[in-house]
Amino acid sequence: MQGERNSGFDVLYHNMKHGQISTKELAEFVRERAAIEENYSKSMSKLSKMASGSSQLGTFAPMWDIFRISSDKLALCHLELARKLNDLIRDISKYGDEQVKVHRKTKEEVTGTLEVVQMMQVASGQLHKAKECYYNRCLEQERLRKEAAAQKDVEKADNKARKAAESFSSSVEKFNRVGEEFERKMNESAQKFQNIEECHLRQMKVLIKSYSHSIENTHVQIGQVHEEFKQNVENTGTDTLVRRFAEQKGTGRERPGTDMEHIIFQSNMGVSHNGCIMELGVLEKVGILNLKG
């Protein structure tokens, strides 16, 4: 737990603060997705208007209503998704505000740990210096003895070595004492940080699940709209389009006057254009042509 330079506390604290960054970035991501959905909805509305403004002439005209209705429904689907995502952004922002409060409270609670971490760093530095000093004094003491130096110099080296040993022993004692407090405080703070992080991850997953659920529901709705579009196209047969055209464009059901009798048509044939033959029976029924007589 101690680690290099006792920096574990700093790592855990900044990791907690990084949670706020993740929350803000999630809000920005969802906001961007909501903007995309809003723009898509506007684009589908433009397509709907385009379909409404398409030519109403000819037998194909009713098909534009199918395009218009489908485009309107798709526009609503994407607009509804944008609304749900905006609601989600508010939930994320609310969580972000609560997160800041929790972090402020935690910062106050772990102040004691930060202090003992700093004490531990000081004690560790002092211990290292005392150890080096003691080691060097012992080497000096051993060198003088091997060289048969003057007794005065040997005694002087012995005194320095003894003082270094006392200082080293004192540093070890202080380090151990601070280390016990450091371990206790770090255990408490590490547990706090872990609880906060686990809570943060659970909440983020809840928010992401809401995001996923909203998109999934919208995709289901979009699929239903496409299926409806396909069915409407299939159900609108060629004969239906021709009949609707005849009903809308019919000019009457009365037989033409005697001045038209010199025009002869075969009763079972229609007018051929580009290889396509339209049965006169349908047109005759609704009054565009009434040539029997």
From TrEMBL:
Matches recorded under PROSITE patterns: F_BAR
Protein localization: Membrane, Clathrin-coated pit
Alphabetical list of Pfam families matching this protein: GMIP-like_FCH (PF22699)
Keyword set includes Ubl conjugation: no
Domain of life from the UniProt record: Eukaryota
Entry-linked InterPro entries: AH/BAR_dom_sf, F_BAR_dom, FCH_dom, GMIP/FCHO2-like_FCH
Annotated GO CC locations: clathrin-coated pit; clathrin-coated vesicle; plasma membrane
GO annotation (BP), single: clathrin-dependent endocytosis
Membrane topology annotation: Peripheral membrane protein
Residue ranges occupied by any F-BAR domain in the UniProt entry: 1-241
SUPFAM superfamilies in the record: BAR/IMD domain-like
Keyword terms: Coated pit, Coiled coil, Endocytosis, Membrane
Recorded family membership: Belongs to the FCHO family.
Protein name: F-BAR domain-containing protein
Lineage, uppermost ranks: Eukaryota, Metazoa, Chordata, Craniata, Vertebrata
